[in-house]
Amino acid sequence: MIPVTARGAKILVIDDEPHILRAMRSILSKSYEVELAASGEEGLQFAAECAPDLVILDLSLPGISGMEVCRTLREWLKAPILILSVRDTEGDKIAALDLGADDYLTKPFSAGELLAHVRALLRRTGSAPNGPGQVRSGDLVVDLAERKVTRRGDHVKLTRIEYTILARLASSADKVVTTGMLIRSVWGVATTEDSRALRVHISNLRSKIEPDPSVPCHVVTEPGVGYRFLTESV
Fold this sequence. Notes:
The chain is α/β, with parallel strands linked by helices. The protein is built from 8 helices and 13 strands.
């Protein structure tokens, strides 16, 4: 482990590539306290000792795999997990998210892209909500406690399924929610037919909440993986 003291939240980076660890230290240490681990075993040990506010985890690790590290961390760690990997297949992304990862960033990445994802994850866990049970995206407010949606202060009438989809996304604001997770939230099981139906309901939902449904800014698609409710652009 290589400690790097800086301001802000504590971030644990688990990656076996030295040049990636150096890059992550350079990018993150200006705003955060950073700890670097070169293996899954080392990462798990540090996480248990110091309880980071965010974990950035590579999937391709020697020894304990990144998937297994993610599974183990999620058994007890509440902090968000950002997967960082050269693997960009739909199956890898969905598998990591289903194991409890909160977001996925594919190598190579820019410093700005990484920091935007980090800010979004820390904002969701470290800042107060817009009100009791409320999640805001621009002029759209989803009140999870009251089970109502307003846009520019006006009530938005949604069907039961549309609200269920929006509430599931809003409750995981700025995080990717896989198609399978959404389907299970609505129908309890995941089938090809339900996947087609979900797309129809998402389209209908966007027609009611988006300024321009053809270019959504509240409920955005993560191609091949699922959807994300944005509280601000990431």
